[in-house]
Specification:
Strand order of the largest sheet: 1-2-3-4-7-8-9-11
Radius of gyration: 20 Å
Oligomer: single chain
Mean pLDDT: 93
Order of helices and strands: EHHEHEHEHHEEEHEHEHHHHEHEH
Structural class: alpha/beta
Number of strands: 11
Distance between the termini: 6 Å
Shape: globular
Number of helices: 14
Strand content: 15-25%
Helix content: 40-55%
Length: 379
């Protein structure tokens, strides 16, 4: 099993009346609450934590892209990745992910990843996403075309990375007379591509296709839904005529490890509740703008939300559903092993800092996870 330390880089200082007066930490939450001096401290703290994961022996560190929100201070994850390249020596750096439909010229993304891949001597993983629904409100792009723009942008980027240029690209959404990438990627044929998702039947079918076989990462979902999507991927692979490998199946999960279950709950219970109740809270209209997804995927999404229990999430409910793993090393290890027995997944993306979790507790969590959990799952 491979392990990545994933960071959302939240702004943890929400006002005391946040629950009553602000429906979401995204789009409508006033940026007057952002203090640049605190922001400076947070960026350096979070970069230090990501660097520390390299020292602890994680296989990868992972960042992502979100816009106009307090729960993810990374509108340009390539900039964070560039800083991490200079701070680390060994670890892979996964950008999970860049929202392809939001850009007007995908060549810019191809160039950025190629630059980072050269700077890091081939340590970059490219995570491609459509972007959650709120990103279409922040960008002004029509969500109806998100699937088309995603696939077309993906095809253009892969061709730019792998085909000698110059050549022309004429698509329905992107048209370029010259595609001639300078620099080319360091890795051959190109950086690995991962597909994070909260559950889309179309994405499962597309990522598992033999032309791609991209690792599919299920995020912020109950254990039953993770198993369902992983096994759907496996079934689809069999339909295509091959057996999915463990490194094609990933699980992104909030995790906290302490000496005992009781201590873990005392230290991380409120933090994981703030993650789901405050930082990730969005209205249905914000998450699912008209045309964003198919009816089938919307039903899956509603089932996922129902699996979280509806209303305000509790730490106990999140643990019971397997949406979060919080407990002693034995408890957390058992939760991971149960999922491995159900699906055979081989990539664990561990969210070891979440919500209001402090730097001290984050580092204790990282230390215990690296020392008491990871060694039992390697190989």
């Amino acid at each position: 099993m491979k392990f990545s330390f994933f960071h959302l880089m939240p702004y943890p200082y929400l006002p005391d009346d946040f629950d009553e007066n602000y429906p979401s930490s995204a789009l409508t939450f006033p940026n007057s609450f952002f203090d640049p001096k605190i922001g400076n401290q947070l960026y350096h703290r979070y970069l230090d934590e990501l660097e520390y994961a390299d020292q602890l022996g994680f296989d990868g560190i992972a960042v992502n892209e979100h816009h106009q929100t307090a729960y993810g201070l990374m509108p340009a994850p390539n900039l964070i990745a560039s800083a991490l390249i200079q701070r680390t020596k060994r670890v892979q750096i996964a950008i999970l992910g860049r929202a392809l439909p939001l850009v007007n010229n995908p060549i810019y993304i191809a160039e950025e990843f190629a630059m980072l891949d050269n700077l890091s001597k081939g340590r970059i993983i490219a995570g491609f996403v459509r972007g959650i629904g709120s990103e279409y409100h922040s960008s002004g792009n029509n969500p109806y075309f998100s699937h088309e723009r995603f696939h077309e942008a993906h095809d253009l980027i892969i061709r730019a990375w792998t085909e000698p240029g110059p050549f022309a690209f004429d698509g329905d959404h992107f048209s370029l007379k010259y595609v001639n990438l300078w620099p080319r990627p360091y890795q051959t044929p190109h950086p690995p591509v991962w597909i994070p998702s909260q559950g889309s039947s179309e994405t499962v079918a597309w990522s598992s296709h033999p032309d791609r076989k991209y690792p599919f990462l299920v995020t912020f979902s109950s254990a039953d839904l993770v198993a369902r999507y992983h096994n759907t991927y496996r079934d689809k692979a069999l339909e295509y005529g091959y057996e999915a490998a463990p490194d094609q199946l990933g699980w992104a999960c909030p995790i906290y490890v302490a000496e005992t279950d009781e201590r873990a709950m005392a230290e991380a219970g409120r933090a994981v509740e703030t993650l789901f109740n405050d930082f990730l809270r969005q209205s249905f209209e914000m998450l699912m703008p008209p045309g964003y997804t198919s009816m089938r995927s919307m039903k899956n999404f509603i089932a996922m939300r129902r699996g979280l229990g509806g209303g305000r999430a509790t730490a106990e409910g999140l643990i019971e559903s397997g949406t979060a793993l919080i407990g002693s090393p034995e408890t957390v290890l058992a939760g991971i092993e149960r999922m491995r027995e159900r699906t055979g997944f081989g990539i664990l993306v561990a969210l070891l800092q979440f919500g209001i979790l402090s730097d001290d507790l984050t580092r204790r969590n990282m230390n215990l996870f690296a020392a008491e959990v990871m060694p039992h799952l390697r190989g």
